[in-house]
Amino acid sequence: MTTYKIAKMPGDGIGPEIVAEGVKVIEKVAELKGFNVDWVNYDNGADKYLETGELITEDTLKEIKDTCKAIYLGALGDPRCKPGILEKGILLKTRFYFDQYVNLRPIKLLEGVDCPLKGKGPKDIDFTVIRENTEDFYVGIGGRANAGKSKGHLEVIRDMWKVKFDLDIENTDEIAYQIGVMSKNGADRVIKYGYDLAKKQNVETAYFVDKANVLSDIYSFWRERVVEIGKQYPGITPEYMFVDAITMWFVKNPEWFKVVTTPNMFGDIITDLGAMIQGGLGLAPGGNINPKGVSMFEPIHGSAPKYKGMNRANPLATIWAGAMMLDEVGQGPAHDLIVNAIQGVIMDGKVKTKDLGGNNTCSDMGDAVAKKVEELGGI
Ligand code: IPM
Ligand code: MN
Q1: Is the pTM of this model over 0.90?
Q2: Which residue, of 46, 57, 201, 354, has the greatest Cβ tally within 10 A?
Q3: Domains and CATH numbers, the chain
Q4: d(CA 368, CA 373)
Q5: Residue nearest atom 4 in ligand 1 by C-alpha distance
Q6: pLDDT tens digit string along 347-361?
Q7: How many Å lie between the centroid of ligand 2 and the Cα of residue 149?
Q8: Which tens digits make up the pLDDT trace of 159-168?
């Protein structure tokens, strides 16, 4: 029997509760589909950081790389830590370490879920956002300078590139700055992923997001790469959208979209909007993918610290992310079974967490999906 060794990182806030439900469902599917999951727990997160000062070490990352097939993540972020410490020190660090350059975010409104957009239904909201996940304004270089004259130095070292900026600043008041970096290879690989998905889905128009009218150095480059790579896909027409405009069209005409490929920061923003039009953050999963390496799966939402330990969060996004993980490791039918089970539980309408207008707990929801998996899997 195939066994997949998977790193489980429940993280902070509601992370442990929602991951426990995801594991419950995956275990059930594994039993029915005849494979095994060997979970390896990693307790990285706020508690560990506050106790030991450790975020995530190179040794831990290397161990995961050498032994695990994928990572199943809950959420990171805790009010006891300064904003960004855990997010950058664990989440982004892991995305970058494994070079998970595709952030895959399905925006799919399930049957029976309330949609805030009037007159739109599951047929209208069914697309995938492919977010670049390693570059852009996420590379982490910036700083501040006090009034007066100062000098500074910024650098980022990656496998694919190394950049260094020398700064010579003279200003009358304090300033802050942040630098975005996009490489040709970094843009090309995710743009190709977008075109490939469009091709696989027989989509004629593939959408690409930018802000080439203002941030013209970085995003005109992106657009040039979209044109260039597009030459390899004669059947597909690229359509460019400015990020501000696409937020409008997501609301007005979501049915236009099937495959949307976007630089990192804009992808972050538009996928929270995407989550809302698919019924809320409780239903929005994501995968950080390295097609040739270790990928990591997580809900799009955060750690919701105020609900920690209350058994009230909706685990469906995490369960769905678990389905995406099984797909990635080569268990496509297991993915479909879980998504169908989520859909089935929603259609039954009996078990609903608070965000879905009900009173059920997080574990009620996990139990219901696991039971539905058993029901559907037996057919
Ligand atoms: C997301 C999150 C992260 C991001 C944060 C927590 C670093 O918002 O996965 O969308 O900005 O990528
Ligand atoms: Mn986000």
Answers
A1: yes
A2: 46
A3: 1-106+281-379 (3.40.718.10), 115-127+182-278 (3.40.50), 136-181 (no CATH)
A4: 9
A5: 268
A6: 999 999 999 999 999
A7: 36
A8: 999 999 999 9
